[in-house]
Amino acid sequence: MRFSFSILALVIFLTGSLSARDFTVMVYNVENLFDVDGVALYGDYRQGDEGEYGEGPLLNKLEGIRIALAALNNGDGPEIILFQEFELDRTPYDTPSAEAFLKETKGQDLAAILDQRSNLPSELLLLKYLDDHGMGPYHIGQPDPVKSESHPPHKNVVFSKFPLNFVRQRDSYNARDLVIAGIDVDGHELIVLNNHWKSGASNARTEPIRVQNARVVRAELEAILLRNPSADVIIAGDFNCYYNHSAVFQDLEETAVNDVLGANGHEVRMVQQGSKNLYNLWFESDPAERGSEVWRGYWGTLMQMVITPGLYDNRGIQYLDNSFDRLAIPGENVDTRWGRPISWSNYGGGAGFSDHLPIYARFRSIPGEGSDGFVELDNPSDEPLSANRPKMDFARMNRMAVPRVGVLVAMSPEERVREVGELFQVDAELVSNRPARIRIGDLELEVYSPIRDLRDQINSMQPGDRLRCFADLDVFRGRLQVVVRDPSWIYRD
After folding, report:
1. What is the C-alpha separation between 171 and 143, in angstroms, rounded?
2. Which is the CATH superfamily of the domain at 399-489?
3. Pairing mode, strands 21-33 and 359-365
């Protein structure tokens, strides 16, 4: 009987070890996760007077990240996360390894740890917070701050529940170091290239810098594919350009993502023998749903995930067809009215998530040696590039349900920051112009519009003139402001 039980247990073990495993890869620009060592390139993140960045905002920031991660895998979080905008540590001395730090601090509260050790880097702070909430443990892949040639404010970081075979970095001109990590998934190597290219997607003058950033990535990818043409590779991150950049900006001679990297919408080519195609997973989504952030009333696709043909064969790691999506949680990381990302703000003790939505996709490890052939595709994309950019319909609203901006007066700063992104009715006299400001009770608010004609119209008003409009609440450089985002928001008498 005991012998039979042992044989049965062995069969179950072997069957489980040879079964396919599904896992999630997320890409998430968290918008400025800084530590609290008091040394930061951004003034907003240097500790100082009460109300500025410190332990309280940090813990709120970590909780927001945890909420986003916990939305996947039934609260367990993604197995692999490619993060952007962690602070590049300015005090990288005597930093313990991830494993040693978790072992050393097990059972200790993070707030209490911060009281004693304020020099811990951002990645260890998040690692500990997630571990305390039952998420992980994660291995960490990141650039060495000593080896970083340009020392940018931020770094790209990889969190993985699977072991890391290697981590290396490549300097990228006027951008954050490219981080390349080899991840051991059930004996198969998945290679991820974590990017954050030069900012300014809407500025054609910055595209040549992104072209240089893409050349670094392309060279690294070519070296990987030279060694193994069927390598399973994910190129992802904040590219600071659109998935269809060459169609949106047709006057550009060369674009980073479409011309240099070569990412496109031809999924049908991914299952052709010997293919060198690179497929951008935004083409998995309905064109109207493509967007990870909003800029001046239009959705952008700065967050991107591009994959190689190796992820379509029946060996190693395989992409699960049509599993790509953006993560939007109404009332948490997006507003409930239009579904826009709720940005992070240090105001009022810190609240919000990020100005970028995370994106994610599902993958599978194939047992053993796998087999010949490719995955069977369901409605594969063969979409050419077009200038598609979904527009926000800011005119769509129930005007009768919009509260007056005066309700903010009785609120504390902690309460006001939770109203960021919400719409209000404004009916107040200007106390100044250029920039325009209104005062309601003891609360002074700057008035702004991302639309130049509206901005000029508002700024041309004189102190004492009455402004009647709809506007949503925002924070700019630590100050509250109301933002008029559509011509229909101005009252017409």
Report:
1. 10
2. Nucleic acid-binding proteins (2.40.50.140)
3. antiparallel
Backbone angles phi, psi at 212, to 5 degrees: -65, -40
Taking the domain 18-383, which CATH number applies?
Answer: 3.60.10.10
Instruction: Give how far the C-alpha of residue 171 lies from the chain's centroid of Cα atoms, to the nearest Å.
Output: 21
The predicted model scores a pTM of 0.93
How deeply is 384 buried, as exposed, middle or buried, from its count of CB atoms within 10 A (0-12, 13-18, 19+)? exposed
What amino acid is encoded at 236 in this protein? A
Virtual CA dihedral for 448, 479, 436, 466, nearest 10 degrees?
A: 90
pLDDT in tens, 349-380: 999 999 999 999 999 999 999 999 999 999 99
- Residue boundaries of the structural domains of the chain: 18-383, 399-489
CA distance 313 to 321: 12
Bond into 137 cis (ω within 30) = yes
Distance (Å) of CA 240 to CA 110, 157, 172, 196 = 33, 17, 14, 7
Residues 6+ positions from 14 with CB-CB distance below 8 Å = none
Alpha-carbon distances of 386 from 234, 247, 248, 252, 389, rounded to whole Å: 24, 5, 7, 15, 9
